[in-house]
Amino acid sequence: MRISYYAADRRQELEGRGDILGVVGYGTPATWEGRAPYVATALVPMGSPMYEVIAGGPAISATREGVHYAHDGEWLFAAVALGAREPMASVAAEAYGRILRVAEGEGYGYLIRAWQYFPDIHGLDQGLERYRQFNRGRHQALEGYLARGGPRPAATCIGAPRGDLTLHVLAHRAPGLAIENPRQVSAYRYPDIYGPRPPDFVRAMKVASAGREWLWISGTAAIVGHESQAPGDLEAQARETFANLDALVACAGLGVDRQVLAVKAYVRVPDDARLSWPQPWGTAPALILRGDICRSELGLEIEAVVVDGERR
To answer: Looking at the predicted structure, is the pLDDT value of residue 48 above 60?
Structure first.
C-alpha cells in the first residue's frame, strides 16, 4: 500500500499504471483514461491541482451498481457519486448501500476508511441540517453491516462548493482495530444535541498490512469531549487538533520509528492555510484543501496516515 500526491501534469504517467487502486482529484479534470477508479471532487487545493493516488499490488478494476472499484487481493478501493438532492439521508443510504454490496460481494467485508464530500453541508434539508441528514442515511445503511460484526470505519465528511455526493472507501479482507481518543467522546456516542443520529465513524483504524501497522486517522478537529473548542481562533483550534492527533498515535501503540506518510488538511477560509505544523506532522507530504468543516464554528480539520516503520 502506498499513498502519494502528484501534480496534475503527471496525469498521463498515472493513467498508464496497473498498480493503482484509486485516484482522487482535487481541482483536476472530470475525465480519466486510466483503469483505476477516479473520484473528481469539487474541492480545490491551496496551490496547483493535485491527484491523490492509492496504490498496491497489481489491481483488478470493475464497475457494478455505478460503483467503480479496484482490488489487489488485500485492499479494495471503491467510489460512487450520486446527485446531492433532498433528502440527503436517502442519498447517503443509497451510496453506502451500493458500496457495501460491492465490497462484501468481492470478499472485502471490512470498511477501514471512508471519505464523503457534498455541497451545502450546513444548509437545511427538510428542516434538518444536511450533515445531520447525511448521518441519518449513513446510520441506516450501516445498521445491517454493524449487526454482522463489521467495524465502523475511520471517516472524513467535508462540505464541497458544488457537485454530487462523492463517497470513496478503502475496505480490507480482515477487520481493523478501532482506536478512540481519550480526550474525546466517541463520535457514535454523541448526545442527541448533534442530531437524531450520531456520526457513525471511529477516530482511527489500525490495520496490519505488509508486515507493518497502519493507522488511518479520521478527519480530526478541535473537539474535546464532544464540544467544539476556540470558535473563531484558528491558532487555538490547530493546537487542540494536533493534541488530538498526538493522542490517537499514542493510543495506537505504534513503534518509536513510526512515520507520518501523508497529511490532508481542510480549511474553511483560504487565508487560514498558513498554519505552523509541529513535529512529526510537518515532515509528511501535505495537501491543504478549501472545504467546509462539518461543524460551522470550526475552521480546520486534519486527517493523516501513519505507519509503524518497522517490518514485523
So the answer is: yes
